[in-house]
Each structure stands twice: as structure tokens, then as C-alpha cells.
Amino acid sequence: MAFPPPFYRWRPHPWHGLETGPNPPYIVNAYIEITPFDLMKYEIDKTTGYLRVDRPQRSSSQPPALYGFIPRTYCDKHVAKLSATAKTGDGDPLDICVISERPINRSEVILTARIVGGLDVNDGGEADDKIIAVLQNDNVWGKAEDISDIPPIMVERLSHYFATYKMIPGEESKLKVERIYNREHALKVVEAAMADYFEEYGA
After folding, report:
1. Mode of pairing for the β-strands spanning 110-123 and 27-34
2. Distance between CA 174 and CA 151 in Å, rounded?
3. What is the pLDDT of residues 99-136, one digit of tens each?
4. Hey, what domains does the chain have and what are their CATH numbers?
């Protein structure tokens, strides 16, 4: 029996085995780790490719959008050069938040997303950018092209979530959202993360 291409005999690693997207840096694949319904913080296990429970969310806030990463990206020196204040990348795949009209309540799903902007996040001196995207062909957000097409309150919620989700009462936060940037800069960040991945892991 011949299997149609592409066919994976074994489950591909979500970070290394999936394609960056159909037309990167404009349109990318996103592997979703966390949904707006999750009160746990999940992260990809870099060795096995399965989701690992990282920690319960400490605060009462929940992610305002789907949250995951772009396959075959890596945050290192090229990403750090685009940061306002960070000196190095965080050594993780590039994070992405995807806005969708219809609720998606499952994680470990792959979706196609169009880049519209992002958040310049400094986490303890490391670049930890959060790319903002919309679900491709979404009935409400499908025509959004730039961060200016997203209601300010939605961008504010994303910014507030990431500014506070690691906050511990009585302690100074090491994480700071330095700025919100537009699609043009976001595309440069995605390209930089793709270049960092190539230099670290090859094609």
C-alpha cells in the first residue's frame, strides 16, 4: 500500500517536524499549547514533543487568545537585535497568540495564522516576543492585516496578560512589555527567528 505524500509514519515533533507555514513570514503554522480556557501553563517538552504541565496559573487572569509557537523558529541573537532592551533570546521557539472569532477549546492543534503585529517582551534580559496573528480565513478577523485592525482593548488584554502572568505579589516582576509593534516589525521578528533556527539546527 502506498501512502500519499506527505505521510508521517510516526508523529512529527511539533517544533522540529512541522513546517513553519505555507507562506512565512506572512502566513505561518501555529502549534497551540494553551487556550483561553486553561488555568494551567503548558509548554512543549523539547525532548519528546508532548505537552508538559509547567505550572498552575498563579493569578486569576486567563490567556485572552490561543497561545503557542511557530514551528522551526528559535529566539537567539537575530531576534534579540530587534528587541528594544533585551541582550539575548530566550532559547525557545517564537511565541504566537492567535485571535479567532469562534472559540477553540483544544490545545495540541495546528492552525494557519496571518501575522498582524506583536509584543516586544523582555523577560529577565531575554527577548521573549509574542507575535499576534489572526486565524486564516476567520469569518470576523480574516481580513485583518495589521495590529491597527485589531480593537485596542484586545491588544491591551494581551499586553496586560503577559505583563502580569508571572507576577508574584510582593516581588518585582522581571518581565516587561516594552512596546506593541505593527505587522512590518512582526514580519522581521519571524524572519529573525527563522534565521536563528537555521543557524542552530539547520534546515
Report:
1. antiparallel
2. 28
3. 999 999 999 999 999 999 999 999 999 999 999 999 99
4. 27-201 (3.90.80.10)
